[in-house]
Amino acid sequence: MADFIQALLGHYNNWAFILLLMIGFYAMIAKNNLIKKVIGMSIFQTAIILFYVSMAVKKNSTIPILDHGHGAVEHAIDVAAYASPLPHVLMLTAIVVGVATLGVALAIIQKIHRTYDTIEEDEIMEIIAQ
Amino acid sequence: MIQSQLPILIIVMPLLMALVIFLLGHKNEGLCFYLHVLGMAGLFAAALGILDQVVTSGTAIHYYLGGWPAPYGIELVIDHLNSMVIAMVAAVTLLVAFYSRQTVPAEVPMRTEHEKVPLRVRNYYVLYNLLVAGLLGLTATGDAFNLYVLLEIATLSTYGLLALGRGRAYYATFKYLIMGTIGASFYLLGVGYLFIMTGSLNMADLFTLLDTAFMQQSMSITIAFAMILVGVWVKMAFFPFHGWLPNAYTVASTTSSCLIAPLMTKVSVYVMIRLMFSVFSAQYVFEILGWQKIVVPMAAAAILFGSISALGQKNLKRMLTYIVVAEVGYMVGGAWLGNVNGYTGAVYHILADGMMTLCVFMAIGAVSYKTGDASLESMRGIFRKMPVTSVVFLVGAFAMIGIPPTCGFFSKWYLVTGAYEAGQWLFLGALLASSLINAIIFFRIIETGYFPDFNKAHGHGHHTDKTVVAEAPLSMLVPMVITASSLVLIGLFSKDIINNLIRHSVPPGLF
């Protein structure tokens, strides 16, 4: 039981991102309104960003910039004191991808609205079926 | 000098071309096509240069972006496997570039219903170039995260190109966008778990780091593999995740479907093969996980589902999209058989299926360009009206069925041999059944095409002998004929392709 609670609380960042992931996933699959689907998609992508950023957290560490300037070579660099910047950098790219996807999705919804005069999925299906 | 820069040139060239077309095409729409063909021809030459380098040197090309050494910087790795895929992608894009001369201006939709102002042809070619940059990039890259970014560049351009279709195109594209994003996100999650466990994103580096008993027993690595697989399966429309493909590809414009149908699924299959064998290992996939017991029957289900659904379609383009779903099953199944013959069949089928899908989509596109729709009825008497197109379609159909000497026969031969060796009887049965169903499908079309308006002639009681030849324009015919002849050539030289390229890329651990 103690192990279970340890696993539950020890990885709380994972639970948070999985919860967000599932909220987004639910909205993408189950919502009828296309804008709500896109909001779900955004939550889904943001959850993954949270996952990446949370895995880079390191206690008592600092940003990976050498603060001694040019004289830094004389000091031994303690790698353990710095947090890995890589996940953050990766997520900058993922955010750009997410924004691009969001933009395309909104543009397509605008086109759908002009064509069918609605953005409710069931109403669109009715018009298509005719 | 330029030879050593070819791996990056194949990505940068279409990116720059997108910009050049965007700027220069502003004043002169007519210029876009020529610029585009020029760019694609240069790209094809570069792809052949890479292929030549790999075959003559016999080793993989490693290109370090910005000169940063491998595990730290991004690396492009081109070996025997992806040099072939790059050549296939470049060939398809060049052929479709020629083909697009008449179809793109004819199919670019109106900006709004009321104003009747056509959208710019320029924008179409810009998206086309971005798609090519993404596809070639994700084929060439040796970095797992870089692959995600380039996959999204390719898919985002695909959304744009598919949405330029008719009728339901917007809605179908929106569904594809939602599914595509889910796929890419799953891939990204899988890469995240790999990064947590290993701290690396470079594929070769991951391969070494994952090759320990601890990693192979780790649940996190198993989950990472499962998520990556689901991600690429959604992208390639593997059977349970295929829902978006038929709708999106059917309503797309002729050029878009000719371009995207042969490339997107095949490149995704390549990505799966690359990740299975170059990030994880054959030993891990087949011996430690042993998922081939589930995945190969799934592939068999994909083949049967795709073929049987294709049988029931009235619209020819929709029928072809279901055949694409079935063909994905061939390649996934072949790669998962876990022996050299299955692998050879799957990789050879990437090349063969890319070209034959292009061939049949181009032929159907030419028919719908002339007759205005793509139903079975539009094929009536087509052998008289469009003799060249029909012959091209015939060659493509023979390749799909698997009649020698077309390439379709040889890939099926290796897949069937591999399935026999692995004892996957269900998959073997599905392969044979699918060939039979393809034969039924295509002979039904050929029959309709060969006999002219039989009913009509009898109904009016006189023989209408109007053999009006209304062939598609030359800009469509030439790439179609080249594609059809390439199907036979790839078949005739299958031994050379397999011995010089595919056999060298067989991963260790396959027998």
Describe this entry's structure for a reader.
The complex is a heterodimer of chains A (130) and B (511). Chain A has helices at 2-10, 12-30, 34-55, 86-116, 121-129. Chain A is an all-alpha fold and 130 residues long. The radius of gyration of chain A is 22 Å and the shape is elongated. By secondary structure, chain B is an all-alpha fold. Chain B has a domain at 336-511. Chain B is built from 22 helices and two strands. Chain B has helices spanning 6-24, 29-57, 80-107, 121-140, 144-163, 169-198, 203-210, 213-217, 219-236, 244-250, 254-279, 282-289, 292-311, 316-336, 340-371, 382-385, 387-401, 407-422, 425-450, 454-460, 474-492, 494-502; strands at 61-64, 75-78. In chain B, helix 14 runs antiparallel to helix 15 (340-371), helix 14 runs antiparallel to helix 19 and helix 17 runs antiparallel to helix 19 (425-450). The A-B interface holds A 25, 28, 34, 37, 41, 44-45, 48, 51-52, 55, 84, 86-87, 90, 93-94, 97, 100-101, 104-105, 108-109, 111-112, 114-116, 124, 128 and B 112-113, 145, 148-149, 152, 156, 159-160, 163, 168, 170-171, 173-174, 177-178, 181-182, 184-185, 188-189, 192, 195-196, 199, 201.
